[in-house]
Amino acid sequence: GQNIDQPTEMTATEGAIVQINCTYQTSGFNGLFWYQQHAGEAPTFLSYNVLDGLEEKGRFSSFLSRSKGYSYLLLKELQMKDSASYLCAVRGPSGTYKYIFGTGTRLKVLA
Amino acid sequence: EPEVTQTPSHQVTQMGQEVILRCVPISNHLYFYWYRQILGQKVEFLVSFYNNEISEKSEIFDDQFSVERPDGSNFTLKIRSTKLEDSAMYFCASKKDTNTGELFFGEGSRLTVL
Prior knowledge:
The complex is a heterodimer of chains A (111) and B (114).
Chain A: E1 3-5, E2 9-13, E3 18-25, E4 32-37, E5 44-49, E6 53-57, E7 60-65, E8 70-75, E9 84-91, E10 99-101, E11 105-110
Parallel strand pairs in A: 2-11
Antiparallel strand pairs in A: 1-3, 3-8, 4-5, 4-9, 6-7, 7-8, 9-10, 9-11
Chain B: E1 5-7, E2 10-13, E3 19-24, E4 31-37, E5 43-50, E6 53-57, E7 65-68, E8 75-79, E9 88-95, E10 104-105, E11 109-113
């Protein structure tokens, strides 16, 4: 089966650092993706991990541990515009094409 | 920057009517997807399409749904007889090739079934 868990909501202050966790149990794994989704808009790609470790991309970093079925997205120097939902998605094993999304974490950034 | 485009942005229909949602994926992409998101819920996989055929579909994608790539640019989702529970945002997505990681999403088509 497929199960991807994320906290439902988080709140943080402008300028701070926030870590959004994602745990997954999927039948096969071929990469973990983080997307940002503002209300009423399409998901936009942020980050991708297929091997263990940290990937850094400006203010955003993502970490993966395949043995633990765990990832996190780290957002530094938070800005008001970072208020959005953050979606964790897992791509299935080679030979399948689908990406399964978690329920998303709604992040509120306060001034 | 190339983007996935979807039409219509919003469609209101009566229960039992047929609906066609249209998508133009990014031109050199080879894999196409439809996802849906019911208000306040997660993004759910419906179907993937590659090499002019369905490669995978979910349990949601029953006989009421079909997809087509009628020409070299359009990718459509048809719902034959809409139900109230089909009300959702429908996202089209595409990706370049097997090794490319990310999906590129369109802005979505909001379907409201009355």
